[in-house]
Design brief:
- The protein is globular, with a radius of gyration of 14 Å.
- A hairpin with a 2-residue loop joins strand 4 and strand 5.
- The longest helix has 23 residues.
- 34% of the residues are buried.
- Helix 1 runs antiparallel to helix 3.
- A 6-stranded antiparallel β-sheet has the order 1-3-2-6-5-4, sandwiched between helices.
- The two termini are 23 Å apart.
- With 139 residues, it is an alpha+beta fold.
- It is built from 4 helices and 6 strands; from the N terminus they run E-H-E-E-H-E-E-E-H-H.
């Protein structure tokens, strides 16, 4: 599904990952945007509304991801899987996308959170697999 003009900015450094983001948007009603960032805060791909600057969001996501990893490790001694932030106007959910990246999705307040998880968790795994595959093997 193409992003309607004027509603979002699509920016990618990884075309295969962008395909995952667009598919996710098409499958989840009220999803307003998404991005994939490396664990060190570098933008990999983004499909965001114009009001959200992709590189800044990638950097902020990295900071939150680092904190979430630390909380999970301290509380349970295990790995991080996802963090859900519920704000007045919607949700920001960050999923682990393998050891080197994360998938962050933005959604309206009325989103079906169960459906969001049902679609985004496999997307995060698919993104992880795409990023782990050497570029030569993808071409």
């Amino acid at each position: 599904m193409a992003v309607p003009a004027g509603t979002a900015t699509a920016r990618t450094l990884e075309p295969d990952v962008m395909t995952e983001l667009r598919t996710l948007r098409a499958r989840v009603p009220r999803l307003t945007g998404s991005l994939v960032a490396s664990v060190d805060g570098l933008l990999i791909a983004a499909d965001l509304p114009p009001s959200v600057e992709p590189s800044t969001m990638a950097a902020v996501t990295s900071s939150g991801l680092s904190l979430a990893h630390r909380i999970a490790q301290t509380a349970h001694g295990g790995a991080f899987h996802e963090v859900v932030i519920r704000g007045v106007d919607g949700y920001v959910v960050t999923y682990s996308a393998g050891p080197t990246a994360s998938l962050t999705v933005l959604a309206e307040a009325g989103v079906n959170v169960g459906r969001l998880h049902l679609e985004a968790r496999p997307a995060a795994r698919g993104i992880a697999a795409r990023l782990e595959t050497p570029r030569r093997a993808r071409t």
